[in-house]
Amino acid sequence: MSRIGKKPIILPQGTKLELKEGTVFVTGPKGSLNRPFLPGLRLNIDGTTVTVERTSEEKTIRGYHGLMRTLIANMVDGVSQGFEKKLEIAGIGYRAELQGGNFVFYLGYSHPITFTLPQGITGQVEKQTQLSVQGIDKELVGQVAAKIRALRKPDVYKNKGIRYANEVLRKKAGKSGK
Question: What is the pLDDT of residues 100-133, one digit of tens each?
């Protein structure tokens, strides 16, 4: 049996979870999220404890058991605490600004790059070279951070570019002389 799927989800104070017509709705202090609930699973809501159970032992349903539990737990964490990804910019002259809710990047190209943040995502620039992306949907926060990183991936020879704050890069040695 799935170890992750068996773990109960504890609802924090002020968070509400309900299942309507095959969709899970989670509401909390930071907002609300919904996601389709996969068939073949059952959701037991007992006060502040939620568990996900299987209705059969089919291979696909066993595979979805832990997945659905983790997705619901991420929704509960998002509406109660929120998620954040931090990024760092390395390189001479590379920097970022926040203008009207959009990021503007100067990454060594001949033009600045304007990155429009999707609805539900906010951004901050702590310094010109350190920024963060926040939101209640973990999947969307990670996707936006990955798109920002893809604007100028870290170079393996000079370590210039945009990287995650906790990312460790291995620098390659360049060509050696004769």
Answer: 889 999 988 899 999 999 998 999 998 888 999 9
Euclidean distance between CA atoms 130 and 97, whole angstroms: 10
Same fold, 3-80 and 83-164: yes
Q: Are 112 and 104 within 8 A, CB to CB? A: yes
- Do the Cβ atoms of 120 and 126 come closer than 8 Å? no
User: What pTM does this model have?
Assistant: 0.85
Task: Identify the H or E element spanning 138.
Answer: helix 138-150
H or E stretch covering 43: strand 41-46
Cα–Cα distance list, 19 to 5, 9, 105, 152 (Å):
18, 15, 42, 42
Query: What is the CATH number assigned to the segment(s) 83-164?
Result: 3.90.930.12
Tell me the two tokens of residue 133. Answer: 């992306």
Instruction: Give residue limits of the domains in the chain.
Output: 3-80, 83-164
In CATH, the number for domain 3-80 is: 3.90.930.12
Note whether 80 and 15 are within 8 A (CB).
Answer: yes
Q: Let me know if 110 is exposed, middle or buried by CB neighbors in 10 A (0-12, 13-18, 19+).
A: exposed
Q: Please state the three-class secondary structure of 72-118 as a single string.
A: HHHHHHHHHCCEEEEEEEECCCCEEEEECCEEEEECCCCCCEEEECC
